[in-house]
Amino acid sequence: MANNSNSKISPVIAASICPSVVDVIIPVYRGLEETQRCLESVLAFPQETTYTIVVINDCSPEPELSAWLRELAGTGAITLLENQINTGFVNAVNRGMVLHPERDAVLLNSDTEVHGDWLDRMRRCAYSDPQIGTVTPFSNNATICSYPCFTTSNLLPENWPLDALDKLFAEINAGQSMEIPTSVGFCMYITRHCLNQVGYFDATLFKQGYGEENDFSMRAMDLGFRQMLCADVFVYHKGSVSFGNEAENLCAAAQEKLKERHPQYFTLVGDFCARDPVRILRRRVDTARLRRSSHRKLMLITHRMGGGTEKHVLELAKLLEPDFEVLILRPTHPSEVAVEWARSSEEFMAYFSLPYAYMELLDFIKGLGIFRIHFHHVIGLHQQILRLPKDLGLPYDFTLHDYYPICPQYNLTRKDGKYCGEPDASGCAACLAERPALWGMDILSWRTLFKNLLASAERVIVPSNDTMERVKIYIPEANYVYLPHPEVPISPLNISSTFFGNELKVVILGHLTLAKGLKLLESCAVDAKVRKLPIFFSVIGVNGFVGQQARVYPDLPLSFTGPYSDSQLMILIARERPDIIFFPALWPETYSFTLSYAMRSGLPIAAPRIGAFIERLADYPHTRILDWDTPAAGWNDMLMTFWREHDHDMTQEGAGDGA
Amino acid sequence: MEPEDYLRQYTESFLPPKTESRLPPDGSGLMLEYGCYYPSYQQPEAYLDVLSRADLLEIVRQILSTECPQRRLIRRQVDEYLETLRRLKDERAWRQAEMERLNGELERLNGELAWRINEMGNLGAERKRLETLVLDSHAELEHCRSRIAVLENECATMRATLTDLRASTSWKVTTPLRRFSGAVKTLLRAPED
Question: N or C: which end of chain A has fewer CB within 10 A?
Answer without folding.
Answer: C
